[in-house]
Amino acid sequence: MSSVTLSNITKRFGNFTAVKDLDLVIEEGEFFTFLGPSGCGKTTTLRMIAGFYYPSEGKVKFNEKDMTTVSPENRNTGMVFQNYALFPHMTVYENVAFGLKVRKKKKAEIKKRVEDVLEKVRLKPFIDRQVSQLSGGQQQRVALARALVIEPDILLLDEPLSNLDARLRDEMRNEILRLQREYGITTIYVTHDQVEALTMSDRIAVFNVGNCQQIGTPTEIYNQPVNDFVAEFIGETNLLDVDWKEDKEEFYSEGLNKSIAVIPPEPEMSEGPLKMSIRPEAIQVSEEELSGPNVFLGNVQLVQFTGEAVHSFIAIHESDVTLKVTDLNKGPSTYLKENAQVYVQLPPSQVRVVPKAKKE
Ligand SMILES: Nc1ncnc2c1ncn2[C@@H]1O[C@H](COP(=O)(O)OP(=O)(O)OP(=O)(O)O)[C@@H](O)[C@H]1O
């Protein structure tokens, strides 16, 4: 097991900067996720940790050891690629044994280690099957076994579940977590799927166009996003422009035409353009009159049923604002009716005022 330290990492391809000034410490045994939209630099960063790319600037360390320009085969990392990169005409055994053969291990040791790891990923019955005759989920397990069998210090997973259907993705998510806990291995996981990131990670780094926007635990990232990009990318949220009114010491929403009570008021965020973010599940709605701060009258425009949840879109009176509200499905008697007039409250403790993300 190793910790990974990235100090001031920049990666340029010609004139294009794919990753900029990245500082990051991943602790031993941690499940750490790089999350962000397509093209934001997640894979490039992972490849610099694997050694497939060397950084243009900055240092990569495993524990205290400088690995910045060490070749991939001398890093002892196990990597699982998005397309698995298996040898289709070899058997499961041959695929998994490959890395050990390259490392010139003895035949008996190879056999034992391959059988042990196939037991762990529950593929022992398929040991002699050709990889091309396996399902997507089974191939994914072979790729995991192949990465784990070399007993890597660090496991690197690049969008490993993106080729699987939704049900299999759920199953493999649990499977990867189970293996990670069993081996206690430092794991770095790349995804653009926020649910994968939130459910699996000890900590997440949120990337956007080559920049790391925030590092934190799933609950920190979801509940205390540092800017509008993070608030919008992780989960769903209602975002509205707000201004800080110095004279009255309060936030004002032009869209809602009203001052907005916020606890705590966070005056350090009063410089530059600001947004308020409120999660759809945090908004209170009632057909009965509501009292207190941040109460608005609105009309229900649309009600969408997803099975476990009900989403309602509420147009606030005398404004252009439509708020999305989400409630767990508590039965048909609780669904809002389209066109009904309702009271909406944005609880001050749930409103978060954040700066707009800087555009680089
Ligand atoms: N070898 C390369 N040469 C030139 N540009 C590259 C190279 N590799 C990546 N890039 C560019 O760097 C940027 C970041 O790419 P990267 O693959 O790291 O993104 P990503 O966040 O992993 O995206 P995705 O989720 O689509 O895989 C992209 O704009 C990409 O086109």
TrEMBL record:
Enzyme class: translocase
Presence of the UniProt keyword RNA-binding in the record: no
Recorded GO MF terms: ABC-type polyamine transporter activity; ATP binding; ATP hydrolysis activity
The reaction(s) this protein catalyses: ATP + H2O + polyamine-[polyamine-binding protein]Side 1 = ADP + phosphate + polyamineSide 2 + [polyamine-binding protein]Side 1
A cellular-component GO term for this protein: ATP-binding cassette (ABC) transporter complex
ABC transporter domain: residues covered: 4-234
Highest taxon of source: Bacteria
Alphabetical keyword list: ATP-binding, Cell membrane, Membrane, Nucleotide-binding, Translocase, Transport
EC number, as in UniProt: 7.6.2.11
Pfam families (UniProt xref): ABC_tran, TOBE_2
InterPro entries on file: AAA+_ATPase, ABC_SmlMolc_Importer, ABC_transporter-like_ATP-bd, ABC_transporter-like_CS, Mo/tungstate-bd_C_term_dom, P-loop_NTPase, PotA-like, Transp-assoc_OB_typ2
Function per UniProt: Part of the ABC transporter complex PotABCD involved in spermidine/putrescine import. Responsible for energy coupling to the transport system.
Assembly notes: The complex is composed of two ATP-binding proteins (PotA), two transmembrane proteins (PotB and PotC) and a solute-binding protein (PotD).
Protein family (similarity comment): Belongs to the ABC transporter superfamily. Spermidine/putrescine importer (TC 3.A.1.11.1) family.
Protein name: Spermidine/putrescine import ATP-binding protein PotA
Source organism per UniProt: Halobacillus aidingensis
